[in-house]
């Protein structure tokens, strides 16, 4: 709470000053109100044209146009500050410069060049992701799937204790407890052995969980740390958080998935029933993609640069092959929403099935249409969502998307024992994704995310097995379960308009 109050106190003077300036301007220019009304109407027309013509999701455009209709001036200012991709440039420009100095090894480039004839369409979809993200597909040397957060955490802790050169860690939420306490202890021990340990956390994501006292402990232990997009004042980048989750050790092993570093993620404490999360471990050249993601952020905002030698430790070729893995990160500064478009591609490619894990379901028009089309042409489309929500309002909005999907033939299951935080998808026994991407507007358009696509890898079989075991613990939702009446339907419609803000 102290951390939150401190952040509010930092921002509050800027908000008060802005309000005073607006009030002063209104008072000064009141005699010319009629003239300015005409000017604002004209500017409003131009603003509407700009929003309509800008390449963005239709649902998002409607939200801003409604906002403008109700309050033209505040809406125009808010859109220019937070509502378009140009606002994230202060971050993406710095990251871009860091990436230019880092580079990325392309030893396994061309791995998608000669797929089997029947897989050519899938290979094209992966090349699309390569092109948009700049991340190469690699041979998957060794993969390990973890069906629960506690399984993933134990494996992470084991590998951290063996680190010889460096431990690089980036997470959206960090909170002191059993999980973080054990990890901090392991990192502090490795620092004593000369290991370079660095931590990135999202400043807003960890605003109520990670304080100055926590970072002081890291400093005392010799652990380097950095908040991402620090909340110092209201800015255009306020909405663009790093939702990424990754651990890279010695360039040899990387972990990722949905698991944040707080005790509910490993069921050490219970908040919303049983917490269902997933993660994975990879080794070999594919680790280089995660090192590149981490170093891009660290070097963009820290003077203590990650040395080139860190990349030299990444294996240049795989000792064995367990299919292909393409690990990439999504940026709100990208012209194309990479993950959103890839899911649309795969729903269109799917012949037998397309199954999804997601804690939140707030789809844009294009992605929702892809789900509907796939189900209507006979693809077995399933979605597992939470049975016990962490945010009741968001859960209601999630459920408002059910009817159109159910009517099309999509099967939806809610996890009866508790909350699902896993983010994954599976297609036709040949490809799956595991990462940090939720099926909502924030993840798909506003946040920095990371995702891994596994193609013809054994991890697909493990994920499928886990999915079916989880589904057995779910209750299937049917249309008759969602009868909210006229008032409920109207409320859901209103909430749907504002879903891009949730």
Describe the protein's architecture and organization.
The chain is globular. It has a domain at 2-83. The chain has helices at residues 2-28, 33-53, 58-70, 72-83, 89-102, 120-133, 149-161, 178-192, 212-220, 287-301, 309-312, 338-349, 365-376, 392-400, 402-408, 441-446, 459-471, 485-497, and strands at 138-139, 142-146, 166-171, 196-202, 224-228, 246-249, 253-257, 274-276, 279-283, 324-330, 353-357, 380-386, 411-415, 418-420, 424-427, 431-435, 449-455, 474-477. The two termini are 22 Å apart. It has 502 residues and is an alpha/beta fold. Strands 1-10-17-16-15-11-12-13-18 form a nine-stranded mixed beta sheet, with helices on both faces. The chain has a seven-stranded mixed beta sheet with strand order 2-9-7-6-3-4-5, with helices on both faces. Strands 8-14 form a two-stranded parallel sheet.
List the keywords.
502 residues; alpha/beta; nine-stranded mixed β-sheet; seven-stranded mixed β-sheet; 18 helices
Topology of this structure?
Layout: H1 2-28, H2 33-53, H3 58-70, H4 72-83, H5 89-102, H6 120-133, E1 138-139, E2 142-146, H7 149-161, E3 166-171, H8 178-192, E4 196-202, H9 212-220, E5 224-228, E6 246-249, E7 253-257, E8 274-276, E9 279-283, H10 287-301, H11 309-312, E10 324-330, H12 338-349, E11 353-357, H13 365-376, E12 380-386, H14 392-400, H15 402-408, E13 411-415, E14 418-420, E15 424-427, E16 431-435, H16 441-446, E17 449-455, H17 459-471, E18 474-477, H18 485-497
Parallel strand pairs: 3-4, 4-5, 8-14, 11-12, 12-13
Antiparallel strand pairs: 1-10, 2-9, 3-6, 6-7, 7-9, 10-17, 11-15, 13-18, 15-16, 16-17
Helix pairs in contact: 2-3, 3-4, 5-10, 6-12, 7-8, 12-13
């Amino acid at each position: 709470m102290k951390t939150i109050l401190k952040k509010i106190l930092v921002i509050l003077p800027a908000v008060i000053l802005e309000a005073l300036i607006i009030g002063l301007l209104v008072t000064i220019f009141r005699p010319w109100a009629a003239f300015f009304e005409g000017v604002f109407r004209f500017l409003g027309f131009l603003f509407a044209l700009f929003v309509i013509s800008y390449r963005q999701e239709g649902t998002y455009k409607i939200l801003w146009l409604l906002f403008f209709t109700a309050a033209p001036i505040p809406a125009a200012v808010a859109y220019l500050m937070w509502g378009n991709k140009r606002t994230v440039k202060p971050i993406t420009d710095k990251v871009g410069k860091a990436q230019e100095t880092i580079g990325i090894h392309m030893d396994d480039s061309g791995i998608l060049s000669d797929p089997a004839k029947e897989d050519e369409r899938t290979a094209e979809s992966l090349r699309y992701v390569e092109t948009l993200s700049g991340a190469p597909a690699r041979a998957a040397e060794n993969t390990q799937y973890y069906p629960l957060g506690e399984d993933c955490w134990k494996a992470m802790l084991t590998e951290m204790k063996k680190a010889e050169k460096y431990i690089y860690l980036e997470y959206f939420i960090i909170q002191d407890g059993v999980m973080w306490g054990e990890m901090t202890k392991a990192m502090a021990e490795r620092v004593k052995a000369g290991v370079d340990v660095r931590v990135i956390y999202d400043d807003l994501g960890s605003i109520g969980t990670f304080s100055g006292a926590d970072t002081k402990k890291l400093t005392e232990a010799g652990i380097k740390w950095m908040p991402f997009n620090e909340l110092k004042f209201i800015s255009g980048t306020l909405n663009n958080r790093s939702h990424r989750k990754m651990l890279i050790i010695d360039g040899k092993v990387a972990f990722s998935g949905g698991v944040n570093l707080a005790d509910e993620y490993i069921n050490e404490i219970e908040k919303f029933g049983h917490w269902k999360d997933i993660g994975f471990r990879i080794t070999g050249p594919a680790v280089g993609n995660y090192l590149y993601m981490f170093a891009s952020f660290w070097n963009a905002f820290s003077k203590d640069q990650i040395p080139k030698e860190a990349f030299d430790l990444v294996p240049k070729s795989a000792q064995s092959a367990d299919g292909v893995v393409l690990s990439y990160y999504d940026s709100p500064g990208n012209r194309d929403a990479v993950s959103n478009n890839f899911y649309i591609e795969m729903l269109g490619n799917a012949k037998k099935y397309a199954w999804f894990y997601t804690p939140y379901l707030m789809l844009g028009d294009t992605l929702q249409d892809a789900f509907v089309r796939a189900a209507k042409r006979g693809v077995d489309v399933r979605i597992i969502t939470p049975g016990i929500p962490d945010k009741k309002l968001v859960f209601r909005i999630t459920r408002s998307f059910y009817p159109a999907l159910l009517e099309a033939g999509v099967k939806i299951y809610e996890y009866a024992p508790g909350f699902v935080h896993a983010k994954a998808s599976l297609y036709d026994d040949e490809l799956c994704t595991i990462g940090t991407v939720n099926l909502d507007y924030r993840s798909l358009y506003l946040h920095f995310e990371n995702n891994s696509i596994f193609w013809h890898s054994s991890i697909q079989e493990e994920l499928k097995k886990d999915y079916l075991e989880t589904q057995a613990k779910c209750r299937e939702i049917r249309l008759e379960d969602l009868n909210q009446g006229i008032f409920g339907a109207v409320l859901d419609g209103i909430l749907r308009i504002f879903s891009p803000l949730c």
